[in-house]
Amino acid sequence: MAETPDRRSAARGEGAVATDTDLPPSALDEKVREAEDKKWTPGKIALWAAIALLGGVAWFMLAIIRGETVNAIWFVFASVCTYLIGYRFYSKVIERYITRPDDRRATPAEYKADGKDYVRTDRNVLFGHHFAAIAGAGPLVGPVIAAQMGYLPGTIWIIIGVVLAGAVQDYLVMFFSMRRGGRSLGQMAREELGVIGGTAALIATLLIMVIIVAILALVVVNALGESPWGVFSVGMTIPIALFMGVYLRYLRPGKIMEVSLIGFVLLMAAIIGGGIVAETPWGADIFTLDKVTIAWGLIIYGFIAAILPVWLLLAPRDYLSTFMKIGVIVMLALAIIVVRPEITVPAFSEFASRDNGPVFPGALFPFLFVTIACGALSGFHALISSGTTPKLVEKERQTRFIGYGGMLMESFVAIMALVAAISIDRGLYFAMNSPVALTGGTVETAATWVNSLGLAGVNITPDFLAQTAANVGEESIVSRTGGAPTLAVGLAHIMQQFIGGTAMMAFWYHFAIMFEALFILTAVDAGTRVARFMLQDSIGNFVPKFKEASWRPGAWLCTAIMVGAWGAVLLMGVTDPLGGINTLFPLFGIANQLLAAIALSVCLAIVAKQGTFKYLWIVALPLAFAAVVTITASYQKIFSSTPAVGYFANNAAFSKALAEGKTEFGTAKSVAAMEAVVRNTAIQGWLSVIFVVLSIIVIATALLATVRAFRNRTDATAARGNEDPARPSRVFAPAGLIPTPAERELMAEWDKVPAELRFERAGH
Amino acid sequence: MSSGLAAVAKGFQGFARYFGGVLGADAYAKYLEHHRAAGHSAPPLSEREFWRDRTDRQDSNPQGRCC
C-alpha cells in the first residue's frame, strides 16, 4: 500500500519531538545522512565491488567447483562477504522501510535512566555484550550435527538464513522492544496478539525453554560421560565460580576484570590438572562416571544453582563464560585463517538425499533447517533481544548494528564450528556421532560399521579411532554424540597445527569441552531461573502469593517443577535405547524455530499495525519459512510412517513388538528398553503435538491481527499504538562501528557542549 | 621504540577497557556518572553496596542467556 506523505511523517514522529535549542541536534540531519549514504565515491564502489567479487568467487569455489578438497578459507570469505553485503544493503532496507529509527527520540536508556538497569552503553561495548548474551553452545553444536548432510546445505542455510531470517528477527524484536521501554517478548505478544495469542505464546515459551535446557544438558552429559578428565575440569568450575563470587562480594567488590583473570587462570589449571588427575588410579576411579549419574548430578546441581543467590554462582560464572566466549571465538577465527585446513567432506553427502542418516533421521528438508537453529535463525534470541539489551541502547539507529550485526557474528561462529567439524576425517565423524546402538561402542565394531556405510573415500581402522582417542586424552571417542566432542576434536585438530602440535591435542580437546560445558551450564542456570519466574508469574494469576519473588516456598516449588521437567527429558534422553541426541535434537531445533515463528508473528502484527504493508514481506518471508519448516518437521515427527522419523510410528512398532511377546526389537535389546522406547516416543510425540498446536495458535492470531490492521489501514491513529510516547533525546552517538564524516562533525559539536548541559536534570 | 611501546600499551589498555565494558566491569563508574548528572541530593551507594544491590536485584529479575 502506498503511503501518503502525511501519514508517513506522522508515523516517523516528525514534529512530535521538540529538540532542545541549547544543544546541538541529537540526530544527523535527514538530508545530510541520506546524501552521505547515497554518495558513491569511486573508492566506495571499488570496495563493494571487491567484496561482492570475493564473495562470489568463494561461493563459486564452495558450491560449483567442489573439487576433491576445498580450503576452509573459502568458508570464511563466502560468509564474511555475504554478511557485509546483507548488513550494508538488506538491513538498510529494513531500517528504511520498517523500523524507521529516529535519533531525535530518546531511547529507554535515556528517558528511563536509573544508572542500574537503564544505562546508555557505548554501541561497540553493547555489541560485545549482546553477542555474549546470544551466542552460546547452540551455534557450536547444530552445525556439527548437520554436517551429516555434507557441508553445502548447512553452509547455505547458515549464511543465507541469517541474512534473511535470523538477523531480521533479532533486529526487529530489539527495535520494537526498545520502542516499548524494553518490554519482553511475552508482554509484547500479549499486547499485540491479545489474550489468546499472548497466553499461547507464554505457554509455548515455557515449554520450549524446558526442552532447550534439557537438550543442552544432554549435550554436556554426553560430553562428560566416562571422561574423568572432563568431569574433573568441568566440576572444578563450580568451586572456581564460588570463589570468584565470594571474592567479588566480600574481598574486592566490582573488580570484575581482575577476578575474571584469576578465574581464567584457575580454569586453565583445572584443565591441566584434570589430565593429571585422570591419569591417577584414584582420579580415574572417582571421576569416571556413567551418563545417568552425571545427569542426576546435573539435575541436583541445576536445582541448587537456581535457588542460590545470583552473586554466589551465576554472576561469577557468567563473567567466566563471557571471558571464554570472546577469547575462544577470536582464537578459533585466527586458527582457521592461519591454518586454513583442507576439507575433504563432500558438498552433499550420501545422506543428503536419504532420510535415514545415523546422526539425525529425516530428509534434508525440513530437518536440516531445524537441526541448525542457532546461527541461522534462533527464536531464543528474541528473549534476549527483548528486555535486556534494549534497555542499554544509546541511540535508536544503533539497533541495526547491535541487533542485525550481532546475529551475523553468531552466524560466523556457526560457520567456524562447521569448518572445525568437517576438518576431521569423515569416518571419524560418523563413528563419533552415531548412537552406540549402531556403532556397537568399541573401536572394532565402530570401524566395521562405518566402513560398511559405503561412504565415498571413507575407510577407517580401529587403530585410527583408538589413536585419536589417546591423542585427545579420552578412553574412547566412539559414539560420543551431541556435537560437542566432535567440535572439540575438530578444534583440537586445527589448534594443534596452530599451537603446540599433537602433544597439545588433549589440552585443546578438554579446553573445548570445558568452554562448551561452561556456556551450557550458564544457559541451564539462567534458563531455569527465567522459566521459574515465568511459572511463578503465571501461577500468580490464580494464587497471588506466587507473584512475590521473595516468597521462598513458591520460588522453590516452581524451581523444582522446572528442574523436574527438564530433568525428566534429560534422563529420557540419556537412557534412550535409540540414542538420545538423534531422537531429541530435532525437538530442540523445532522448539527453537517455533519460538522464532512466534517472535516473527509478533513482529508481523506490529509492522502491519504501523501500516507498512508494502514491505511486510520482509517479516512474512522468514515467518513463512520458519512456519513451513517447523510445521512440516512437526507433522513428520507426528505422522510419518517411517519409525526412525515418526515418534508415533516408532511407538506403534515397539508396542506391537511388545504385544507379540518379543524380548528384543531393533536397537532395544531388552523388554525394559523396549518399554522405555514406547514411553519416550509417546512423550516426544505429544510434546511435538503441543508445540505445534500452540505455535499455530500464535501464528493464526498474528495473521488475524495483520488482516485486521490491513482492513483498518486508513485509521492512522492506531499506528505505533503500543509504543512509549516519543521524548526528545539530549545525546548523540554514531550509529555504526565507524562514525561517518557527518557523524564526526556532529560529535565534535557535542564535544564543545559544557558538561553540565549534557545530561538531563529534570525528572529526578 | 618507546613511542611504539606506548602505542602498544595504549592499544592494550583500550582493549582491556572494551573487554571490561563487555563484562560490565564499569557499571559502578556509570552509576556514579548517572548519579552526578541526575543531581541527586542523597549520597551515592558505595561500591560495595552498589554491587550487592546489583546482584541482589538479579535474583528477582533474572536475565536469560542463550543457547
| Average of pLDDT of chain B | 87
Radius of gyration of chain B, rounded?
Answer: 17 Å
Find the structural class of chain A using helix and strand composition: mainly alpha
Helix residue percentage of chain B = over 70%
Number of helices of chain B: 3
Major sheet details of chain A? 2 strands, antiparallel
Report on the architecture of this protein.
The complex is a heterodimer of chains A (764) and B (67). By secondary structure, chain A is mainly alpha-helical. In chain A, 69% of the residues lie in helices and 1% in strands. Chain A has a two-stranded antiparallel sheet with strand order 1-2. Chain A is globular, with a radius of gyration of 26 Å. The N terminus of chain A is likely disordered. Chain B is mainly alpha-helical. Chain B has one domain. The longest helix of chain B has 22 residues. Chain B is flat. The interface between A and B is large, with 65 and 41 residues.
List keywords for this structure.
heterodimer, A: 764 residues, mainly alpha, two-stranded antiparallel sheet, 69% helix, globular, disordered N terminus, B: 67 residues, flat
Itemize the secondary structure elements and their pairings.
The complex is a heterodimer of chains A (764) and B (67).
Chain A: H1 5-12, H2 30-38, H3 42-65, E1 70-71, H4 73-99, H5 108-111, H6 123-134, H7 138-146, H8 151-179, H9 185-224, H10 228-251, H11 256-279, H12 281-287, H13 291-307, H14 314-339, E2 342-343, H15 364-371, H16 380-385, H17 398-422, H18 426-433, H19 436-439, H20 443-452, H21 462-471, H22 484-498, H23 505-540, H24 552-575, H25 580-610, H26 617-639, H27 647-659, H28 671-711, H29 741-751, H30 755-758
Antiparallel strand pairs in A: 1-2
Helix pairs in contact in A: 3-4, 4-8, 4-17, 6-17, 7-17, 8-17, 8-25, 8-26, 9-13, 9-23, 9-24, 9-25, 9-28, 10-11, 10-12, 10-14, 10-23, 11-12, 11-14, 11-23, 13-23, 13-24, 14-17, 14-22, 14-23, 15-25, 15-26, 17-22, 18-20, 20-21, 22-23, 23-24, 24-25, 25-26, 25-28, 26-28, 27-28
Chain B: H1 2-23, H2 27-38, H3 47-59
